[in-house]
Amino acid sequence: MNTGVTQLLSDPERKFNAKELAALAAYFRVVMFDTLHDRGTGHWGGAASSAELTTSLYFNRMNIKTDESKWEDRDRLILSKGHASMNLYTILANRGFFPTEELATFRKLDSRLQGHPCMKKLPGVDMSTGALGHGISIGLGMAMAAKVTNRSFWTYVLVGEGCLNEGQSWEAIMSAAKFKPKNFVLMVDYNKVQLDGTEEEIMPLGSLSDKLKSFGWNVCPHAYDGNNTEDVLSSYDWMDQDDVWPKAVIYDTIKGKGISFTEGKSSWHGAVIDDDSYAKGIVELKKDLQNKEAVL
Ligand SMILES: Cc1ncc(C[n+]2csc(CCOP(=O)(O)OP(=O)(O)O)c2C)c(N)n1
Fold first, then answer.
1. 189 lines ligand 1 (CB under 6 A)
2. Mean pLDDT, residues 175-195
3. pLDDT of 40-76, one tens digit each?
4. What is the position in ligand 1's atom list of the atom closest to the CA of 83?
5. Which atom of ligand 1 is nearest to the CA of 192?
6. Residue 263 in contact with ligand 1 by CB distance below 6 A
7. Burial category of 285 from C-beta neighbours within 10 Å (exposed 0-12, middle 13-18, buried 19 and up)
8. Euclidean distance between the first and final Cα of the chain, in Å?
């Protein structure tokens, strides 16, 4: 690990700024790519896509206690795109929920780090996910629980287009507009590439912003760049601006972000990282990390 990030991670509790978050996300990509290559399994494309989104939540925004992972007042993140588990695991380990060494057990028999996150096994996982489309309903339930118990925690649901292709999501979107729980945020990791094709080829969402607005949501005025931490932090300013719920934030992202030959490619959704691709890819990721550390 390089000194810049080592220093940052010596105090993971503090609130990091945009440059620091960018360096952390770049480092997490290196860890994810390394681990997925070593294990010969997992999902690189979607994990790389959401790196800045999850890093910013856990290292700038969320109110959590790593030594009390079931603290009732904690903010929640539901990774509805559960296949991006390696992204969540890398963040949770480095944030302090469990030892980083445990990342090496990813997808081994009896590991707490299953292919898709399991809330019963791993501290820090707020909901078991993997079957696309459940996250918004579950998040709505949590946000409603906050309402009826007079708690003020936030519930964030991170989805990709795959979740939004599921009918259940739209039932939950409709219900959320009826019940309007506070502090309930839908975050769309909108990379427009799915498992075996583009959003256009599989199931076009049309104007997502207009759709969500027509369902009664408070939608961000423009899409944010979800791979740019400055922009992700400005989306938080928008979230804090008014008290009109539920809120949806659309983030333009790039699937497989960080490596030239994996960016925007559905073939890199869940491909095994072969040795040749690893050797080329890791050079690009480390260079990006170096650049981000140089400006800290
Ligand atoms: C109900 C369900 N159907 C199909 C799958 C298989 N599947 C896993 S990921 C995926 C595509 C996800 O695409 P997207 O939501 O855009 O994810 P991202 O690009 O952010 O990784 C599919 C179809 C699944 N996990 N669950």
1. yes
2. 98
3. 999 999 999 999 999 999 999 999 999 999 999 999 9
4. 9
5. 16
6. no
7. buried
8. 15
